[in-house]
Amino acid sequence: MNNSINIKSYLLSSFFIIILTLHITPVESNSIRQSSTIDIENIENLMIEQVNIGPRHPGSPGSLVFKNWLFNQTDSSWDIEIQKFTHLDTEVNNYFITHSTSISWPKYIFGAHYDSRKVADKDELYPHLPVPGANDGASGVAVILEMLSHIPSDYKNQTGFILFDAEDQGSGGMEGWDWIIGSEYFVSQMSDEEISSTEFFLLFDMIANDELTLRYEANSDDLLNEEIWNIAHSLGYQNIFEKKIGVSIIDDHRPFLDVNIPSVNLIDLLGYPEHHTIHDTMENVSPENAAIVLDVVLEWMKSTYWVGGTPTSSMFYNSNTSETSIFIPIIIFTLLSSKILSRKYLLNNLN
Ligand SMILES: [Zn+2]
């Protein structure tokens, strides 16, 4: 008889634990944290404006329009250095954005490519039309431009941003062109001193997929990957940031890796069926997902590299932070109280 009461009371307490756990378990969602100050609408508008420019491959009229557009997006506190060179008789332009107070090479460099692919060769119906590049091009640029207004003032002079041309024209995109021409050139122009003073390079490429899943890009730096994914999980974005090794991709982080600069590529190539088709448009992307990626990167920077400039985030700002540290005392409390209850129950019944 005592046994059956024990079983009942333990079943009851287990039930409570399950209910409690369900109640406090952070809900995984694809929404950005409420406390984030990232302007999703700005990211969206920046993407729309780039797509509206039209094709932006090297040498295209759109590429020149992009240049003028870019200079209107930044205030005078940011300098944009144009790195111009010629490849196969075509003018190629990278844009290097640094703060006007910078006196030395930035320690942290963030990048994205702005060119759109000249031909939608994965499109079944229209393989000769250009790719609009809402995700493949515009999303990374939009995130970088939004990022400028979130850098703590003490760290602006240590942070640089590079927008690459000519990333996306390999394998027949433009005749005779290879991939990552812009970033190859950028790194080739870095001095040994600049290379050694670059702590890391982080690339945003195709981060606005409607269904976004980011896995570790296979060539990216393990340690940096782990740091970023850990932050993402602590913020509740574990459904987007999957701790698995993904595919290996030729992208603008490669030239940096080749000179031993730790580098990360944030990209979801496989989860975007519109890749290199004419459907890489605003209808098929989520500016909010791009904002979530920026949220993670900013929190990672604030907790790891920008320590001391601005207050790092409190562990209490988000219910998803330190899950275990919240759960353990609650579970112990529930177990203890259920034990006390069951003892009382036993005593009452025995009396
Ligand atoms: Zn591409």
Main attributes?
single chain; Aminopeptidase; 8 strands; disordered C terminus; binds zinc ion; 351 residues; six-stranded mixed sheet; 2 domains; alpha/beta
Structure, described:
The chain has helices at 2-24, 40-53, 61-71, 134-147, 181-188, 192-196, 222-234, 254-258, 287-304, 323-350; strands at residues 78-87, 90-99, 108-113, 159-164, 200-204, 214-216, 241-245, 263-266. It is of the alpha/beta class and 351 residues long. It has 2 domains: 2-26 and 320-350; 40-304, Zn peptidases (Aminopeptidase), CATH 3.40.630.10. The strands form 2 sheets. A 6-stranded mixed β-sheet has the order 1-2-4-3-5-8, sandwiched between helices. A two-stranded parallel sheet has the order 6-7. Helix 2 crosses helix 9 and helix 4 (134-147) packs across helix 9. It is globular. Zinc ion binds at residues 117, 136, 168, 276. Zinc ion (ZN) is lined by residues 117, 136, 168, 276.
Task: Summarize the structure in short.
The protein contains ten helices and eight strands. Strands 1-2-4-3-5-8 form a six-stranded mixed beta sheet, with helices on both faces.
Would you count the extended β strands for me? 8
Q: What series of H and E elements makes up the topology? A: HHHEEEHEHHEEHEHEHH
Report the mean per-residue pLDDT as an integer.
Answer: 87
Question: What characteristic shape results from the CA principal axes?
Answer: globular
Structural class label: alpha/beta
State the distance separating the first and last CA atoms.
14 Å
* CATH superfamily caption of the largest domain: Zn peptidases
Distinct small-molecule ligands in the complex: zinc ion
- Outline the biggest β-sheet: 6 strands, mixed
Percent strand equals: 5-15%
* Count of discrete alpha- or pi-helical segments spanning 4 or more residues: 10
